[in-house]
Amino acid sequence: MAVHLEGVELFDPDAYADGVPHETFARLRREAPVYRHEQPGAAPFWAVTRYRDIVAVSRDWATYSSERRGALLGEPPEEVLATQRLMMLNMDPPRHSKLRALVNKGFTPRMIAQLTGPVRRVCDELVDGVAERGRCDFVTEVAAELPLQVIAELLGIPQSDRHQVFEWSNTMVGSDDPEWRGSPEDAQNAAMSMYAYANELAVQRKDSPREDLVSVLMQAEVDGEQLTEMEFDLFFLLLAVAGNETTRNLISGGMLALIQHPEERRRLLDDRSLLDTAVEELLRWVTPVMQFQRTAQRDTEIAGVPIAEGERVALYYVSANRDEAVFDEPMRFDVGRSPNEHITFGAGGPHFCLGNSLARLEIRTMFDVLLERLPDIELDGPPRKLRSNFLNGLKSMPVRFSAAAS
Question: Domains of the chain (ranges plus CATH)?
Answer without folding.
Answer: 13-379 (1.10.630.10)
